[in-house]
Design brief:
Helices cover about 15% and strands about 25% of the residues. It is built from two helices and four strands, in the order ααββββ. The protein has helices at about 1-10, 20-25, and strands spanning about 40-45, 45-50, 60-65, 75. The protein has a four-stranded antiparallel β-sheet with strand order 1-2-3-4, with no helix packed on it. The protein starts with a helix and ends in a 23-residue tail after the last strand. About 10% of the residues are buried.
Length: about 100
């Protein structure tokens, strides 16, 4: 809504949303809850597990494991990582060093 007002004030055309309320409702059926640290199969030869990033409630770092002929390839990535010792959020976690 703010973008519509801002654009109108600046003489720009309104920005139309690219998704509808129905699109948003339909995608909600695709969400599923997963436990931090538990592997889940994403596709053949690809699995993932999520680690608490400690940044915002529910934020996660993602660890991917890709099957390869010689040895699995593991990649871990994240956005913001929260600082330690926060009052209302647990500290960031990741896989044990022995599994990386």
């Amino acid at each position: 809504m703010a973008d519509r007002i801002r654009n109108a004030q600046r003489g720009r055309p309104p920005v139309e949303p690219i998704y509808t309320l129905q699109d948003a409702a339909a995608c909600m059926t695709l969400f599923r809850a997963l436990e931090y640290g538990a592997w889940t199969t994403v596709a053949d030869g690809l699995r993932a597990r999520f680690w608490n990033a400690g940044h915002l409630l529910g934020s996660a770092s993602v660890e991917l494991e890709i099957d390869r002929r010689d040895a699995p390839l593991r990649i871990m990535f994240s956005g913001d990582i929260g600082p330690g010792h926060k009052l209302l959020q647990t500290e960031p976690r990741g896989p044990p060093a022995s599994t990386i």
